[in-house]
Amino acid sequence: MCRRLLFALLLGVAAAALATPAFALGGSGLRPTVPDGLSENGHRIYDLYTYLISPFGIFVFVLVEALLLIIILRFRRSRQRPDYQPPQWHGNRGVEITWTVIPFLILVVIGAFSFIELQRDFVRPADSVTDLDITVSAHQFGWVYYYPEGFKVNSEGLQATPLVIPTGKLVRMRMQSTDVIHSYWVPDLTGKTDTVPGYDNYMWYKVSQPGKWRGECAELCGTGHYTMQILVQAMTPDDYQAWVSDQVAKSKATPAPSASPSAAAGTASPSPGASPGASTSPSPSGYPAPSTSPSP
Questions:
Q1: What pTM was computed for the model?
Q2: Which of 124, 175, 185, 219 is deepest in the core (most CB within 10 A)?
Q3: How far, in Å, are 28, 76, 77, 78, 95 from residue 82 at the CA level?
């Protein structure tokens, strides 16, 4: 009985592990591991979880649950005589050293590789390897993207305006906040980075293929938190340059001022009796009308 139940448990765990990726690919939202990020730093996070953290986690989970079920089923009260007393003993130095040293070594290995990954991909990239700098400013409840060419892109609420980046280039992003803590997260590209008021964080993307990917603020930041959607769009370098030129042209285009009727009425010519040195009264717009006296 005990063996059959243990086998059924292991079979159920295996079935869930095999079925969940299929659900994830089908768009159900279920995913047993982190997404395989399309940015280089996101892909390395995926490798860290898939090939190091997850195997240790699965091993510990299966071991603990299997031992727990064996003890519960094999030594349950119904299988023992009414006056049964289990053996009483205290202390086993070998077992205690083993269950202390092995978890310690597991945590040391995971911590060491995690620290290496943090230093490699989650610090400010050097200027020498950076191809494009963008400042991301968060607020309740939206984002503003400042580009080095002098224009900005506003993204507000559920109708997210994309952060546009070129493919094949390392894009360094300076993360800021004007009010509370937010978190910038596009899971299909890389991990999340917090935006903290008064403090600059840095993250970066380097995507090799064009496309669009959605994300959202991952830090509870107020009643409109759910509306802080993110959209990132990667373009080929040529398409990106064309997009930048269009944005620069739009930012520089200003509508020509039209003359108001009141201003036109205020610039009437002086009467014939006016002295040559006199000037007309100021216009309604607040600017003085030009003098009517001839220039020397």
A1: 0.69
A2: 175
A3: 51, 12, 8, 9, 30
